[in-house]
């Protein structure tokens, strides 16, 4: 048995190389980067897993590593940066979004929805995997899972901490949320009923000036993208359309 076969495989890329000494893997190019404190900072060469066995998020570099794509079982790729060089692999189905002023969320949704129906694993990528491609994934979660922007963003941020959305992309996501969750038509008013008489089961006296509960409130000006992501356990979410429990609740950057 050769020396390399007796070594412990790298915990990040799974191949045999002297990762503790900073040696570059001869198969996938992974290496362990020492930080300024001389401790080992492990950087995964794999794309980030958003949903097991279905949705992955990464960079152009992730999309170009054929062996790692094969290791993760990825057979389809959604390229969100039309200007980037087109990748080609006979075993992978590619779909590139068109160059538009705004992110083509609906086009991406149709492709990803088909991937999910086909039970195919798909990688969504831009150049660095920080802004454009995460926004596409967030938009897909809002439309396919019925999650609001806050929940979708936190879900993606927890699984890929390097996500850093540009201001333009943030604005487009907020507009897309408003498009998906367009408020229902205002019901007709009934002049004979005074506003003070409507309590909806929340009893209050005439002197009680407290307001009624506000449902589904979301402030578009809240610092959603500037605060740290909250780790939300997966069981807080319900997949699919049939939900049996409530959820708690210019120019495009080339990334």
Give a description of the structure.
With 255 residues, this protein is an alpha/beta fold. The chain has a domain at 1-45. It is 27% helix and 11% strand. It is built from seven helices and seven strands; from the N terminus they run H-E-E-E-E-H-H-E-E-H-E-H-H-H. The strands form two sheets. It has a five-stranded mixed beta sheet with strand order 3-4-7-5-6. A hairpin with a 3-residue loop joins strand 3 (48-51) and strand 4. Helix 5 (132-145) crosses helix 6 and helix 5 packs parallel to helix 7 (167-180). The longest helix has 14 residues, at 132-145. The model is unreliable at 1-6, 35-43, 188-222 and 232-250 (pLDDT under 50). This is Protein-tyrosine-phosphatase IBR5. Residues 103-171 form the Tyrosine specific protein phosphatases domain. Residues 46-182 form the Tyrosine-protein phosphatase domain.
